[in-house]
Amino acid sequence: xxxxxxxxxxxxxxxxRPIHERDYVVVGTTPEEMxxxxxxxxxxxxxxxxxxxxxxxxxLARTERKTARGYHGFAFNAAPEVTLEEDLARRDLTVNxxxxxxxxxxxDPFGGRRDxxxxxxxHVSPAFAEDPVRLLRVARLAAQLAPFGFTIAPETQALLRxxxxxxxxxxxxxxxxxxxxxxxxxxxxxxxxxxxxxTTGALDVLFPEVARLFGVPQPPRYHPEVDTGVxxxxxLEQATRLSPAPEVRFAALVHDLGKGHTPxxxxxxxxxHEERGVTLIGELAQRLRIPxxxxxxxxxxxxYHGLVHRLFELRPKTVLKLLxxxxxxxxxxxxxPFLAAVxxxxxxxxxxxxxxxxxxxxxxxxxRAVAAVSPEPLLAEGLRGAALGxxxxxxxxxxxxxxxxxxxxxxREG
Length: 414
Description:
Elements: E1 2-6, H1 8-15, E2 23-27, H2 31-36, E3 40-41, E4 48-50, E5 57-60, E6 63-66, E7 74-77, H3 84-89, E8 99-101, E9 106-107, H4 112-118, E10 120-121, H5 133-144, E11 151-152, H6 154-165, H7 174-185, H8 190-200, H9 202-206, H10 208-211, H11 228-242, H12 246-254, H13 273-288, H14 292-309, H15 316-325, H16 335-347, H17 358-371, H18 376-380, H19 385-401
Parallel strand pairs: 2-5, 10-11
Antiparallel strand pairs: 1-2, 1-8, 3-4, 4-5, 6-7, 8-9
Protein backbone atom coordinates (compact mmCIF):
# COMPACT_ATOMS: atom_id res chain seq x y z
CA UNK A 1 0.00 0.00 0.00
CA UNK A 2 1.39 3.39 -1.09
CA UNK A 3 -0.12 6.85 -0.57
CA UNK A 4 0.43 9.91 -2.79
CA UNK A 5 -0.64 13.53 -2.53
CA UNK A 6 -2.28 14.40 -5.86
CA UNK A 7 -3.97 17.09 -7.91
CA UNK A 8 -4.49 20.67 -6.88
CA UNK A 9 -2.46 20.51 -3.69
CA UNK A 10 0.67 19.53 -5.64
CA UNK A 11 -0.01 22.18 -8.27
CA UNK A 12 -0.67 24.95 -5.76
CA UNK A 13 2.37 24.11 -3.67
CA UNK A 14 4.55 24.48 -6.76
CA UNK A 15 2.88 27.81 -7.58
CA UNK A 16 3.28 29.07 -4.03
CA ARG A 17 -0.48 29.30 -3.54
CA PRO A 18 -2.18 28.50 -0.23
CA ILE A 19 -3.33 24.87 0.03
CA HIS A 20 -6.86 24.66 1.39
CA GLU A 21 -7.43 20.94 0.99
CA ARG A 22 -5.38 17.85 0.23
CA ASP A 23 -6.46 14.80 -1.73
CA TYR A 24 -4.62 11.51 -1.70
CA VAL A 25 -4.52 8.44 -3.93
CA VAL A 26 -3.85 5.03 -2.42
CA VAL A 27 -2.30 2.30 -4.58
CA GLY A 28 -2.25 -1.45 -3.94
CA THR A 29 -5.09 -1.94 -1.47
CA THR A 30 -8.79 -2.73 -1.21
CA PRO A 31 -11.83 -1.07 0.38
CA GLU A 32 -11.85 -3.75 3.07
CA GLU A 33 -8.25 -3.02 4.02
CA MET A 34 -8.94 0.71 4.15
CA UNK A 35 -11.84 0.21 6.53
CA UNK A 36 -9.74 -2.12 8.65
CA UNK A 37 -7.25 0.72 9.06
CA UNK A 38 -10.01 2.99 10.37
CA UNK A 39 -10.82 4.91 7.18
CA UNK A 40 -14.51 5.80 6.75
CA UNK A 41 -16.03 5.14 3.30
CA UNK A 42 -17.87 8.11 1.73
CA UNK A 43 -17.67 7.53 -2.03
CA UNK A 44 -20.88 6.56 -3.82
CA UNK A 45 -19.56 5.86 -7.32
CA UNK A 46 -16.00 4.75 -6.48
CA UNK A 47 -14.01 4.04 -3.30
CA UNK A 48 -13.25 7.26 -1.40
CA UNK A 49 -12.44 7.32 2.30
CA UNK A 50 -11.92 9.88 5.06
CA UNK A 51 -8.81 9.65 7.19
CA UNK A 52 -9.74 8.70 10.78
CA UNK A 53 -7.90 11.71 12.26
CA UNK A 54 -7.42 14.41 9.60
CA UNK A 55 -10.67 13.65 7.72
CA UNK A 56 -8.85 14.33 4.44
CA UNK A 57 -9.97 12.34 1.37
CA UNK A 58 -8.15 9.20 0.30
CA UNK A 59 -9.30 7.58 -2.95
CA LEU A 60 -8.23 4.23 -4.32
CA ALA A 61 -6.33 4.50 -7.58
CA ARG A 62 -8.78 3.91 -10.41
CA THR A 63 -9.33 3.93 -14.13
CA GLU A 64 -12.54 4.96 -15.85
CA ARG A 65 -14.30 4.09 -19.08
CA LYS A 66 -16.96 6.10 -20.89
CA THR A 67 -20.28 4.21 -21.06
CA ALA A 68 -22.91 6.90 -21.76
CA ARG A 69 -23.38 10.61 -22.42
CA GLY A 70 -22.85 13.06 -19.58
CA TYR A 71 -20.51 13.12 -16.65
CA HIS A 72 -22.26 10.26 -14.86
CA GLY A 73 -21.73 7.92 -17.82
CA PHE A 74 -18.54 6.22 -16.62
CA ALA A 75 -17.55 2.79 -15.36
CA PHE A 76 -14.75 2.65 -12.80
CA ASN A 77 -12.12 0.07 -11.92
CA ALA A 78 -10.42 0.49 -8.52
CA ALA A 79 -8.70 -2.90 -8.25
CA PRO A 80 -5.42 -3.11 -6.28
CA GLU A 81 -3.56 -3.64 -9.57
CA VAL A 82 -4.36 -0.13 -10.86
CA THR A 83 -1.13 1.89 -10.91
CA LEU A 84 -0.58 5.51 -9.94
CA GLU A 85 0.24 6.39 -13.55
CA GLU A 86 -3.05 4.86 -14.72
CA ASP A 87 -4.91 6.93 -12.14
CA LEU A 88 -3.12 10.12 -13.19
CA ALA A 89 -3.86 9.39 -16.86
CA ARG A 90 -7.61 9.82 -16.30
CA ARG A 91 -7.21 13.34 -14.91
CA ASP A 92 -8.14 16.44 -16.86
CA LEU A 93 -5.05 18.65 -17.11
CA THR A 94 -1.34 17.96 -16.94
CA VAL A 95 -0.92 20.47 -14.10
CA ASN A 96 -3.47 18.41 -12.12
CA UNK A 97 -1.91 15.06 -13.04
CA UNK A 98 1.12 15.25 -10.79
CA UNK A 99 1.63 13.36 -7.54
CA UNK A 100 3.96 13.63 -4.60
CA UNK A 101 5.24 10.55 -2.78
CA UNK A 102 5.54 10.42 0.98
CA UNK A 103 9.28 11.05 0.66
CA UNK A 104 8.65 14.24 -1.37
CA UNK A 105 9.46 12.71 -4.74
CA UNK A 106 7.48 14.22 -7.66
CA UNK A 107 5.73 11.85 -10.07
CA ASP A 108 4.98 13.70 -13.30
CA PRO A 109 4.34 11.34 -16.24
CA PHE A 110 2.55 13.90 -18.44
CA GLY A 111 4.73 17.01 -18.22
CA GLY A 112 2.68 18.91 -15.67
CA ARG A 113 5.70 20.68 -14.23
CA ARG A 114 6.73 21.88 -17.68
CA ASP A 115 3.24 23.24 -18.38
CA UNK A 116 3.10 24.81 -14.94
CA UNK A 117 6.31 26.71 -15.62
CA UNK A 118 5.04 27.71 -19.08
CA UNK A 119 1.67 28.75 -17.58
CA UNK A 120 -0.29 26.50 -19.94
CA UNK A 121 -3.45 24.51 -19.23
CA UNK A 122 -3.22 21.37 -21.39
CA HIS A 123 -5.32 18.20 -21.39
CA VAL A 124 -3.75 14.88 -20.45
CA SER A 125 -5.34 12.71 -23.14
CA PRO A 126 -8.13 12.71 -25.77
CA ALA A 127 -10.37 11.17 -23.08
CA PHE A 128 -10.64 14.76 -21.81
CA ALA A 129 -13.50 15.28 -24.29
CA GLU A 130 -15.58 12.54 -22.69
CA ASP A 131 -16.51 14.52 -19.58
CA PRO A 132 -18.42 17.81 -20.02
CA VAL A 133 -17.65 18.94 -16.46
CA ARG A 134 -14.07 19.43 -17.60
CA LEU A 135 -15.08 22.43 -19.68
CA LEU A 136 -16.44 24.12 -16.57
CA ARG A 137 -13.44 23.06 -14.50
CA VAL A 138 -10.93 24.42 -17.02
CA ALA A 139 -12.80 27.72 -17.27
CA ARG A 140 -13.03 27.98 -13.50
CA LEU A 141 -9.35 27.06 -13.00
CA ALA A 142 -8.34 29.68 -15.57
CA ALA A 143 -10.30 32.25 -13.52
CA GLN A 144 -8.63 31.12 -10.30
CA LEU A 145 -5.14 31.13 -11.80
CA ALA A 146 -5.59 34.36 -13.78
CA PRO A 147 -3.00 36.26 -11.67
CA PHE A 148 -0.37 33.79 -12.91
CA GLY A 149 -1.19 34.43 -16.58
CA PHE A 150 -2.24 30.92 -17.61
CA THR A 151 -3.43 30.32 -21.15
CA ILE A 152 -5.23 27.31 -22.62
CA ALA A 153 -3.33 25.19 -25.13
CA PRO A 154 -4.86 25.45 -28.65
CA GLU A 155 -5.45 21.69 -28.84
CA THR A 156 -7.25 21.83 -25.49
CA GLN A 157 -9.37 24.73 -26.73
CA ALA A 158 -10.38 22.51 -29.65
CA LEU A 159 -11.50 19.74 -27.30
CA LEU A 160 -13.48 22.24 -25.23
CA ARG A 161 -15.36 23.26 -28.37
CA UNK A 162 -15.89 19.60 -29.21
CA UNK A 163 -17.62 19.10 -25.87
CA UNK A 164 -20.12 21.72 -26.99
CA UNK A 165 -20.62 20.62 -30.60
CA UNK A 166 -20.96 16.96 -29.60
CA UNK A 167 -23.82 17.82 -27.25
CA UNK A 168 -21.97 16.58 -24.15
CA UNK A 169 -22.39 19.96 -22.45
CA UNK A 170 -26.17 19.63 -22.83
CA UNK A 171 -26.06 16.77 -20.32
CA UNK A 172 -24.71 18.91 -17.47
CA UNK A 173 -27.11 19.12 -14.55
CA UNK A 174 -28.02 22.58 -13.19
CA UNK A 175 -26.46 22.00 -9.79
CA UNK A 176 -23.03 21.28 -11.28
CA UNK A 177 -23.17 24.26 -13.63
CA UNK A 178 -23.99 26.58 -10.76
CA UNK A 179 -21.42 25.01 -8.42
CA UNK A 180 -18.60 25.73 -10.87
CA UNK A 181 -20.00 29.18 -11.66
CA UNK A 182 -20.12 30.07 -7.97
CA UNK A 183 -16.49 29.01 -7.52
CA UNK A 184 -15.57 31.17 -10.50
CA UNK A 185 -17.42 34.15 -9.01
CA UNK A 186 -15.18 34.09 -5.93
CA UNK A 187 -12.02 33.76 -8.02
CA UNK A 188 -9.63 36.64 -8.77
CA UNK A 189 -10.99 36.98 -12.34
CA UNK A 190 -14.59 35.75 -12.83
CA UNK A 191 -14.69 37.40 -16.24
CA UNK A 192 -12.17 34.83 -17.47
CA UNK A 193 -14.65 32.03 -16.74
CA UNK A 194 -17.33 33.59 -18.91
CA UNK A 195 -14.88 34.55 -21.67
CA UNK A 196 -13.87 30.91 -22.01
CA UNK A 197 -17.47 29.74 -22.03
CA UNK A 198 -18.14 32.21 -24.82
CA THR A 199 -15.14 31.32 -26.99
CA THR A 200 -16.01 27.62 -26.78
CA GLY A 201 -19.71 28.14 -27.50
CA ALA A 202 -20.76 26.92 -24.05
CA LEU A 203 -22.16 30.30 -23.03
CA ASP A 204 -24.95 29.89 -25.59
CA VAL A 205 -25.88 26.56 -24.03
CA LEU A 206 -25.45 27.26 -20.32
CA PHE A 207 -26.10 31.01 -20.02
CA PRO A 208 -28.04 31.94 -23.18
CA GLU A 209 -29.42 35.07 -21.52
CA VAL A 210 -25.87 36.42 -21.17
CA ALA A 211 -24.73 35.18 -24.59
CA ARG A 212 -27.61 37.05 -26.22
CA LEU A 213 -26.22 40.39 -25.02
CA PHE A 214 -23.22 40.27 -27.36
CA GLY A 215 -23.83 42.24 -30.51
CA VAL A 216 -26.70 44.26 -29.01
CA PRO A 217 -25.92 47.99 -29.44
CA GLN A 218 -26.27 50.72 -26.82
CA PRO A 219 -26.20 54.53 -27.24
CA PRO A 220 -22.54 55.54 -27.78
CA ARG A 221 -23.18 58.73 -25.82
CA TYR A 222 -23.51 56.71 -22.63
CA HIS A 223 -21.68 53.58 -23.70
CA PRO A 224 -18.49 54.21 -25.69
CA GLU A 225 -17.99 50.42 -25.83
CA VAL A 226 -21.45 50.17 -27.55
CA ASP A 227 -21.80 46.38 -27.35
CA THR A 228 -23.96 45.26 -24.40
CA GLY A 229 -22.04 42.02 -23.96
CA VAL A 230 -18.74 43.87 -23.77
CA UNK A 231 -20.31 46.24 -21.24
CA UNK A 232 -21.47 43.28 -19.16
CA UNK A 233 -17.96 41.87 -18.87
CA UNK A 234 -16.58 45.32 -18.04
CA UNK A 235 -19.17 45.61 -15.26
CA LEU A 236 -18.16 42.21 -13.93
CA GLU A 237 -14.53 43.34 -13.88
CA GLN A 238 -15.47 46.44 -11.92
CA ALA A 239 -17.61 44.43 -9.48
CA THR A 240 -14.58 42.22 -8.87
CA ARG A 241 -12.59 45.34 -8.03
CA LEU A 242 -15.27 46.73 -5.73
CA SER A 243 -16.43 43.66 -3.81
CA PRO A 244 -15.30 40.13 -2.93
CA ALA A 245 -18.94 39.03 -2.55
CA PRO A 246 -20.05 36.53 -5.23
CA GLU A 247 -23.63 37.84 -4.96
CA VAL A 248 -22.46 41.30 -6.04
CA ARG A 249 -20.50 39.87 -8.95
CA PHE A 250 -23.46 37.76 -10.08
CA ALA A 251 -25.75 40.81 -9.93
CA ALA A 252 -23.25 42.69 -12.08
CA LEU A 253 -23.24 39.86 -14.62
CA VAL A 254 -27.02 39.80 -15.05
CA HIS A 255 -28.03 43.40 -14.39
CA ASP A 256 -28.74 44.14 -18.08
CA LEU A 257 -30.24 40.84 -19.26
CA GLY A 258 -33.34 42.70 -20.43
CA LYS A 259 -31.32 44.48 -23.13
CA GLY A 260 -31.00 41.18 -24.96
CA HIS A 261 -34.77 41.27 -25.56
CA THR A 262 -35.18 44.91 -26.55
CA PRO A 263 -37.50 45.28 -29.59
CA UNK A 264 -35.22 45.88 -32.61
CA UNK A 265 -37.17 48.93 -33.75
CA UNK A 266 -36.18 50.97 -30.66
CA UNK A 267 -32.46 50.11 -30.63
CA UNK A 268 -30.02 51.38 -29.49
CA UNK A 269 -32.42 52.64 -26.80
CA UNK A 270 -33.47 50.08 -24.22
CA UNK A 271 -36.65 51.42 -22.69
CA UNK A 272 -38.16 48.92 -20.27
CA HIS A 273 -35.11 46.68 -20.08
CA GLU A 274 -35.16 46.74 -16.28
CA GLU A 275 -38.42 44.82 -15.89
CA ARG A 276 -37.58 42.51 -18.78
CA GLY A 277 -34.35 41.74 -16.93
CA VAL A 278 -36.18 40.97 -13.69
CA THR A 279 -38.19 38.27 -15.46
CA LEU A 280 -35.10 36.77 -17.09
CA ILE A 281 -33.17 36.68 -13.82
CA GLY A 282 -36.02 34.77 -12.22
CA GLU A 283 -36.05 32.25 -15.05
CA LEU A 284 -32.26 31.83 -14.95
CA ALA A 285 -32.27 31.36 -11.17
CA GLN A 286 -35.01 28.74 -11.42
CA ARG A 287 -33.30 26.83 -14.24
CA LEU A 288 -29.89 26.65 -12.55
CA ARG A 289 -31.32 26.47 -9.01
CA ILE A 290 -29.40 29.54 -7.97
CA PRO A 291 -29.75 30.40 -4.27
CA UNK A 292 -32.29 33.02 -3.32
CA UNK A 293 -29.74 35.50 -1.96
CA UNK A 294 -28.14 35.74 -5.41
CA UNK A 295 -31.48 36.08 -7.17
CA UNK A 296 -32.88 38.72 -4.83
CA UNK A 297 -29.89 41.05 -5.01
CA UNK A 298 -29.67 40.63 -8.79
CA UNK A 299 -33.34 41.54 -9.19
CA UNK A 300 -32.93 44.69 -7.08
CA UNK A 301 -29.93 45.78 -9.11
CA UNK A 302 -31.64 45.05 -12.44
CA UNK A 303 -34.79 46.93 -11.42
CA TYR A 304 -33.31 49.97 -9.69
CA HIS A 305 -29.82 50.64 -11.07
CA GLY A 306 -31.17 53.28 -13.47
CA LEU A 307 -32.84 55.20 -10.65
CA VAL A 308 -29.59 55.35 -8.71
CA HIS A 309 -27.73 56.66 -11.76
CA ARG A 310 -30.37 59.44 -12.07
CA LEU A 311 -30.51 60.06 -8.33
CA PHE A 312 -29.80 63.81 -8.51
CA GLU A 313 -32.76 64.26 -10.87
CA LEU A 314 -35.24 62.47 -8.61
CA ARG A 315 -37.81 64.05 -6.36
CA PRO A 316 -37.47 63.17 -2.66
CA LYS A 317 -40.55 60.95 -2.74
CA THR A 318 -39.01 58.95 -5.61
CA VAL A 319 -35.79 58.54 -3.61
CA LEU A 320 -37.90 57.15 -0.79
CA LYS A 321 -39.57 54.70 -3.19
CA LEU A 322 -36.10 53.61 -4.28
CA LEU A 323 -35.05 52.94 -0.68
CA UNK A 324 -38.27 51.06 -0.05
CA UNK A 325 -37.83 49.06 -3.25
CA UNK A 326 -34.37 47.83 -2.28
CA UNK A 327 -35.66 47.16 1.25
CA UNK A 328 -32.95 49.25 2.90
CA UNK A 329 -35.27 50.24 5.76
CA UNK A 330 -35.89 46.67 6.95
CA UNK A 331 -32.61 45.15 5.77
CA UNK A 332 -29.93 47.86 5.89
CA UNK A 333 -27.19 45.22 5.56
CA UNK A 334 -28.21 44.79 1.92
CA UNK A 335 -27.47 48.40 0.95
CA UNK A 336 -23.73 48.11 0.42
CA PRO A 337 -23.88 45.03 -1.82
CA PHE A 338 -26.56 46.75 -3.89
CA LEU A 339 -24.53 49.95 -4.24
CA ALA A 340 -21.37 48.02 -5.13
CA ALA A 341 -23.12 46.34 -8.07
CA VAL A 342 -24.71 49.62 -9.22
CA UNK A 343 -21.39 51.45 -9.04
CA UNK A 344 -19.80 48.63 -11.04
CA UNK A 345 -22.43 49.24 -13.73
CA UNK A 346 -21.50 52.92 -13.86
CA UNK A 347 -17.77 52.22 -14.01
CA UNK A 348 -18.10 49.32 -16.43
CA UNK A 349 -17.87 51.52 -19.49
CA UNK A 350 -14.93 52.45 -21.66
CA UNK A 351 -13.27 55.48 -20.08
CA UNK A 352 -15.44 55.50 -16.96
CA UNK A 353 -13.36 53.11 -14.85
CA UNK A 354 -11.89 55.76 -12.53
CA UNK A 355 -14.66 58.35 -12.56
CA UNK A 356 -16.24 59.34 -9.25
CA UNK A 357 -19.71 58.03 -8.46
CA UNK A 358 -21.26 60.44 -5.93
CA UNK A 359 -24.69 58.83 -6.28
CA UNK A 360 -23.61 55.94 -4.05
CA UNK A 361 -22.75 58.19 -1.13
CA UNK A 362 -25.94 60.20 -1.70
CA UNK A 363 -28.01 57.03 -1.39
CA UNK A 364 -26.19 56.20 1.85
CA UNK A 365 -26.98 59.64 3.25
CA UNK A 366 -30.61 59.34 2.23
CA UNK A 367 -30.83 55.90 3.86
CA ARG A 368 -29.34 57.27 7.09
CA ALA A 369 -31.71 60.23 7.05
CA VAL A 370 -34.72 57.98 6.62
CA ALA A 371 -33.54 55.56 9.30
CA ALA A 372 -33.19 58.48 11.74
CA VAL A 373 -36.86 59.42 11.44
CA SER A 374 -38.56 58.34 14.66
CA PRO A 375 -42.24 57.49 14.95
CA GLU A 376 -42.32 58.72 18.57
CA PRO A 377 -43.48 62.31 17.85
CA LEU A 378 -46.25 60.97 15.63
CA LEU A 379 -47.32 58.45 18.26
CA ALA A 380 -47.36 61.29 20.80
CA GLU A 381 -49.79 63.10 18.54
CA GLY A 382 -52.07 60.09 18.72
CA LEU A 383 -51.52 58.88 15.15
CA ARG A 384 -52.12 55.18 14.60
CA GLY A 385 -52.57 52.75 11.71
CA ALA A 386 -52.76 54.27 8.24
CA ALA A 387 -52.41 57.79 9.62
CA LEU A 388 -49.17 56.83 11.35
CA GLY A 389 -47.86 55.24 8.17
CA UNK A 390 -48.66 58.33 6.11
CA UNK A 391 -47.08 60.57 8.74
CA UNK A 392 -43.88 58.53 8.67
CA UNK A 393 -43.80 58.66 4.89
CA UNK A 394 -44.11 62.45 4.88
CA UNK A 395 -41.46 62.80 7.59
CA UNK A 396 -39.07 60.61 5.61
CA UNK A 397 -39.65 62.59 2.43
CA UNK A 398 -38.95 65.78 4.37
CA UNK A 399 -35.72 64.29 5.74
CA UNK A 400 -34.58 63.39 2.23
CA UNK A 401 -35.53 66.83 0.89
CA UNK A 402 -33.41 68.44 3.60
CA UNK A 403 -30.32 66.78 2.10
CA UNK A 404 -30.62 68.94 -1.04
CA UNK A 405 -29.66 66.08 -3.36
CA UNK A 406 -31.15 67.82 -6.41
CA UNK A 407 -28.59 70.58 -6.05
CA UNK A 408 -25.69 68.15 -6.32
CA UNK A 409 -24.02 67.21 -9.58
CA UNK A 410 -24.10 63.60 -10.70
CA UNK A 411 -23.50 61.53 -13.79
CA ARG A 412 -26.51 60.43 -15.79
CA GLU A 413 -27.43 56.80 -16.38
CA GLY A 414 -25.01 54.68 -18.32
